[in-house]
Amino acid sequence: MTASRGPSYGSVVRTPPVSRVRRLGVTVALVLALPAAGHAYTCTAIDGGGCPLTGATCYAACDETDVRALLATVNGCPPVGVTIAMGPDAGTTCGTTPIPMAMAATAPGVATGACGDDDPNRYNALCLATSDVVFDGRGAIFTYAGDHVCASCSGNCEGRQPALVVLEGNRNTVQNLELRFFPEGVHLHSGSNHTIRNVTNRYICEDALSLDDNVGAGHRIVGTTLVGNTTAATGGGACWVRNEGIPTCTDDAGCAAAGAGARCYCGRLSTLGDCLATPGRCYVPSLCGHDKAIQVNGGGSTIGGDAPGDANRLLTIGQPVRVLAGTHNVIGNVTCGDPTDKNVCQAYAAAGGAVTFRGNRIDHCKFGIRVEGNAQVDAVGNVVTNGYVSAFQLRGTSGGRLRGSANRMRRNGYATTTDCQRGAIVVRDGTTAQLDFGGGNFAGAPVIGGVVSAGGNLFCQNSPADGPLAHVWNMPLDATCACVADPTGAACGAGASIGLGAVGTGNSFDPLPVLVPQAIPNVLDALPVDTRADGAATAATCDQVIVSECDGACRDAPDGTPCRPAGVTGCFTCQQGICADTVAPDGDGDGVCDPDDDCPADADPTQHDADGDGIGDACDPFDGPLVVQTARLKPTRAPGLTTGSIVVSGSYPTTAAWDAPDPASGAQARVTDGAALDLTVAWTPDRCVRSGAGAFACRSIDGRARLKLRPQRRPPRSWTLGLQLRSLDLSGPLLGPVTLRLRYGAALDRSGAAASCLLRPNGLSCKWPALGRRPLTPTRWWRAASRRCRTRRGSRRAPR
Predict the structure, then answer these.
(1) Are 404 and 498 in contact (CB under 8 A)?
(2) Short-list 307, 306, 255, 303, CA closest to 281
(3) pLDDT tens digits for range 117-134
(4) Tens of pLDDT along 278-313?
(5) Which of 76, 75, 88, 101 is nearest to 172 (CA)?
(6) CB of 335 within 8 A of CB of 362?
(7) Rounded distance, CA 687 to CA 699, Å?
């Protein structure tokens, strides 16, 4: 056996060619077309007039001037299906350095690449005026660097509100880019069948995305990440909110009552605080993204979708989607509010038009879905949890309609510090509203499209933390939460016409619905009752009603960070701000998810942790102490001989049954000294046995390497060890301390060292000093050894 010395355990820009073809008498370049004079953009194919050919890709340099020049060219050419790609060439993107966009004023003129310097064209925004254009940011970050505030206002803010991109024409796409601090984000002004895909905005001012009232139909908004209530400084800018209580100001002194840092703004940042000529309003520094993520003023669209990657992540923002008119589908989106602040997320809102909300997952918003005015809403398969006030709310006196089926609601209306009308469904001032959550309205009549709801809704309102919560609140109250009398003189006026189910519709409740006039109703209504709850069944799956994606730890975490929502099992990672189960992070394949795995990179299904330090035995280099009581290293007598040996004795404690050695897993010992000795010996399971008394012994085939571990009977439970390695080619020099690392079981590693060493002619001897005594220096050890020698000469037994 030869000692292994060393750290291991054992042994070992070119210009592309231009080709030309003749098509219809026109000479065209198919590989690379040079840009117009003074600009850097290039196109893979242009015709003789400088227009991109069908299917061409044009690459824009990462600056506003070149992007505008390229857009001006594309908008002036026939619509043939062109891709505008950010970055100088196919292999180079704009990276993560933000591209500043000034969006400078030119009125009455129009900036290059814009459609107009006015509000409909969002003040010289980049304009896709033609059709079939793909504007691909390829990950580019655009940041507003102009002269106007990024602010949230009730109504229009002072000054201009530039957008980054305005879409006109038809079938245009904006994708793969990030916006920061644009007063307006991406605006669909006219045309049909536009697509906004994979757009991120974490620094929202007023609206991140918007559809104009005269826009067409067929639009898609998919895969976006729009986050509100973020810190502006993180993105390198500033966000403001207008103080609506101070009507006017001329300087900052007039804004002192508005709050810390308030400034007087009269339409331009360059005149901030100096508004004597044109009085302004007081603006206060704030978080970004108080208002709306997606504002829909008309047209027809699908927001989200069923395909992988279609869902939008609309996080911690006041109104994730607000619809005023048109026909729209809002499908499969995820919205996470704030567990500590009811005003961070208000609701998905429909104030007009016809909207289908399907398969959305909403947690910790003030309301889940709110119906206002004369909107007609079909709610199917949504999950709404922890709504401060309600899962669904109808308000207004214009006769809104709500049909619901297969929705799952849990713990809605739990916040006692907010509205007095609380529950899974709340109707406020909506005496003409009609709701069908199974079998039609109160009279059994359909409320939308002539078809009644199939039911299948789940009401989980029996919260362990809050007690039983109301299923429905259907009484009109005034601002002081007092009943509003109806014209007949009743204490509380009539409510909406509500059907909570019919026999066979399969609605389930926890607890079962109790209507007035019973003593403790959870369907709160006035007499005569306007709410019907037929065919109610007891809910049995409320513990499964969880929006698992909403884990606050993901808000600013990089994609792929392991996460675990409270009360949920399964493997999750942070994906674009939410805790998503689309990728199961179990990197070592041991069946334990990375967030819970004490060794995420090493298979460790048992999760054993001998020393309780949170690092599992499978990957912990030190699972517990080992006391090396003696270590004797004897070198070979001459080169070429194998007369060296190592003898070590010691002990160690154990903490659990699985911490004891097991012959089935074999064993390994590694001995090192303070010089170059590094020797590892391993015993396979067939070379290890356990005796009847519990002792564990391993022996090599040639008998030269032996390990013996004996359990001690007295508590605390411990083991003694003896290690003998004979017939070694062990050459010097030898130097203390001597360290032994013992491994057995799946991956239990114990190590200790004998540091009090003495180098003698026949080898190195080391000891562990006895507890309570002075350290055993080489001099004291030598004197003790001399006394033992003298004693042995006069007696057959050495003193202890």
Answers:
(1) no
(2) 255
(3) 999 999 999 999 999 999
(4) 999 999 999 999 899 999 999 999 999 999 899 999
(5) 75
(6) yes
(7) 6
